[in-house]
Design brief:
With 361 residues, the chain is α/β, with parallel strands linked by helices. The protein has 14 helices and 13 strands. The chain has two domains: 182 residues, Rossmann fold; 171 residues, 3-Layer(aba) Sandwich (Rossmann fold), CATH 3.40.50.2000.
Length: 361
């Protein structure tokens, strides 16, 4: 059987869920059936070291995705892959524009990493983006959504053909996560209910709401936030205004968050919207429960009340605080949480779904 060449394209390898999913695919695709390659708009990012040694890494050497279009066209004509796979919104739209230039023998597949309508609301040019999604996104041969809610969003708001869409949850490399957990330690305070949040310090992640939620709790609760981003100074000022300096720590980017996920009592997810949050899957894979807003996206497709955490009505900060208290008081069965993730989101299961999609003609 002839191997299929798959060209993956990403803007960079800075920390993010889309990058981690692509890296998981690069590590786990069957090399007897597929030849994976990776092109980066710019060769930079903290995850460069995680690219497998047998994967050719191509640097397009431009500063932004929109400047990479002609280089991508040139690369496709040179390499003639069987499949092109892209996984971030702006880049997805740009590549959708050039799809008609290439023969049907090359399959173009996009993976959406967020709930598109929510993402577009916060974009600089929401109307242009919405128009492009409606006009060119059906150019793709297949579109992967991480959750059913994301698929419904694309169909209802942008008239994307349901026949083109495939819901494939994010894979969790449980063995790799457990191995990394043993390679570090977590500096968390003793005799506290330790809350952990992980993500970019952006409006999407709702850390401003999370700080107000912590302010509703007493001194037994301590919050550590792993991540960096444009809202850092605003969050520091809010921490000071709420007098939370002794109860909240902005840790910054953490190359290995898994010892913290393992040691924390709860993962807390305050996002205004999500795709399918990897941090929930990863923390759950280590037996750590989650309290999360039931906001737009696929969080509600992961969290089962009482099994692996609690879902809270979107943006009800008082209810979120009470759910944290309940979760810390009652506790969860860590092994039951781990089994749930292994049965539903393991790399083995999810990779099989991707390989089935990639094998289609």
């Amino acid at each position: 059987m002839q191997k299929k060449k798959i060209l993956f394209i990403l803007p960079s390898l800075f920390g993010g869920g889309a990058e981690r999913v692509v890296l998981t695919l690069l590590h786990n695709l069957d090399r007897n059936r597929f030849i994976p390659m990776l092109a980066l708009v710019k060769r930079e990012g903290k995850y460069l070291k995680d690219v497998p040694e047998d994967v050719e890494l191509i640097d397009l050497q431009v500063t932004q995705a929109r400047y990479a279009l002609f280089k991508i066209i040139k690369l496709l004509k040179k390499e003639r892959p069987d499949l092109l796979f892209t996984s971030l919104a702006h880049l997805n739209l740009l590549i959708a524009l050039i799809r008609p230039l290439f023969p049907k023998s090359i399959r173009f597949i996009a993976r959406e990493s967020n709930t598109v309508s929510e993402n577009n609301k916060r974009d600089k040019y929401p109307r242009i983006n919405a128009l492009l999604y409606k006009r060119v996104y059906n150019n793709y041969d297949a579109i992967v959504t991480q959750a059913k809610a994301m698929r419904d969003d694309l169909e209802e708001n942008y008239a994307i053909s349901p026949e083109k869409m495939h819901t494939i949850h994010n894979p969790v490399d449980i063995e790799a996560i457990r191995e990394k957990t043993s390679l570090g330690s977590a500096d968390l305070p003793q005799d506290k209910c330790n809350l952990l949040a992980v993500g970019r310090l952006s409006d999407q992640k709702g850390f401003d709401m999370l700080l107000r939620i912590v302010a509703r709790l007493d001194a037994r609760y301590y919050l550590t936030i792993l991540g960096e981003g444009e809202k850092e100074e605003e969050l520091k000022a809010q921490i000071k205004a709420l007098k939370l300096e002794d109860r909240v720590r902005l840790f910054g980017f953490c190359d290995n968050p898994y010892p913290y996920m393992k040691s924390a009592d709860l993962l807390v997810l305050s996002s205004r919207y999500e795709g399918l949050p990897n941090v929930v899957l990863e923390a759950n894979s280590l037996g750590t429960p989650v309290v999360a807003f039931d906001s737009s996206g696929g969080t509600g497709e992961i969290v089962k009340d009482g099994l692996n955490g609690y879902l809270v009505k979107a943006f009800d900060e008082e209810a979120f605080a009470r759910a944290i208290e309940k979760a810390c008081k009652e506790g969860f069965d860590a092994r039951e949480i781990e089994n749930y993730i292994e049965e539903n989101f393991s790399v083995k299961k999810i990779i099989q779904l991707y390989e089935k999609l990639f094998s289609r003609n």
